[in-house]
Design the sequence.
């Protein structure tokens, strides 16, 4: 709840409060009113005012300006066992799992020796087009959603782009799985499909992963979606319908945040009729 919503709620309650309603005595306020947070008694920490965090949370924020105020601490054994069990049941990232490094970049293959099919994941040269010059990545990743021949008889690939963690709102923040890619709703289709010659390699990717630690190479388990109406982004569990949806393609691409600016400028137009 935002501060403004709280103020509105409080004001309304003051307006209708009478001797019988006891609205302002409700226990809810001590859970949501920042000036009156007494629902949970303050716990002694003995850590000189530092904010206690788990080792995982510490790794996430250790490079931030406030890191000096973080005190890494493991939970007591009973609590830790309960956490590990719950994470295991929910297929969440295991407790205290270490970072997974990025697999070696795609080795360049000759595109004309590659058999590209719909459903493949490919690596492309980011400098294949002028509009891509700002990218610093060695290669870009894409899911092939279709293949067609254009009017000049060239083979073109319709693709949904795959993002690396740093291409999302995670940007340069710590993220434990550098071998994870995210399906995007950003496509290059039709006349703006990428030419077959821009493909430098095919990539083995494991889809719909539930235990990231069981995978050595690249994997994809989430979609990084854009909700244009709300000007917001988010990570959602991958759905098989996502492979056929070209949201940005259908609605026309809008400028996105600076994080995604270079990718947002990739053209995305309706598929030309064959
Ligand atoms: Zn498209």
Sequence:
């Amino acid at each position: 709840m935002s501060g403004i919503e709280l103020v509105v709620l409080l004001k309304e309650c003051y307006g209708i409060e009478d001797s019988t309603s006891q609205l302002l005595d409700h226990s809810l306020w001590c859970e949501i009113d920042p000036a009156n947070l007494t629902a949970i008694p303050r716990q002694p920490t003995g850590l000189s005012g530092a904010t206690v965090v788990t080792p995982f949370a510490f790794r996430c924020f250790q490079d931030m300006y406030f890191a000096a105020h973080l005190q890494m601490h493991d939970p007591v054994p009973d609590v830790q066992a309960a956490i590990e069990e719950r994470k295991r049941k929910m297929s969440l990232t295991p407790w205290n799992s270490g970072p997974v490094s990025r697999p070696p970049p795609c080795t360049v293959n000759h595109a004309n020796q590659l058999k590209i099919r719909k459903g493949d994941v490919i690596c492309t040269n980011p400098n294949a087009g002028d509009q891509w010059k700002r990218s610093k990545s060695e290669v870009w990743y894409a899911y092939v959603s279709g293949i067609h021949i254009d009017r000049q008889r060239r083979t073109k690939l319709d693709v949904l782009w795959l993002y690396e963690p740093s291409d999302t709102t995670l940007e340069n923040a710590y993220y434990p799985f550098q071998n994870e890619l995210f399906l995007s709703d950003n496509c290059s289709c039709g006349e703006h499909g990428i030419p077959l010659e821009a493909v430098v390699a095919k990539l083995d990717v494991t889809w719909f992963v539930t235990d990231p630690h069981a995978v050595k190479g690249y994997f994809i388990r989430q979609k990084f979606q854009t909700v244009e109406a709300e000007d917001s982004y988010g990570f959602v569990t991958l759905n098989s319908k996502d492979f056929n949806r070209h949201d940005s393609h259908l609605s026309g691409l809008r400028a996105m945040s600076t994080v995604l600016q270079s990718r947002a400028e990739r053209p995305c137009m309706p598929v030309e009729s064959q």
Summary: The chain has three domains: 1-42, 50-98, 111-264. The chain has six helices and eleven strands. The pocket of zinc ion is lined by residues 187, 189, 246, 249, 268 (CB under 6 Å).
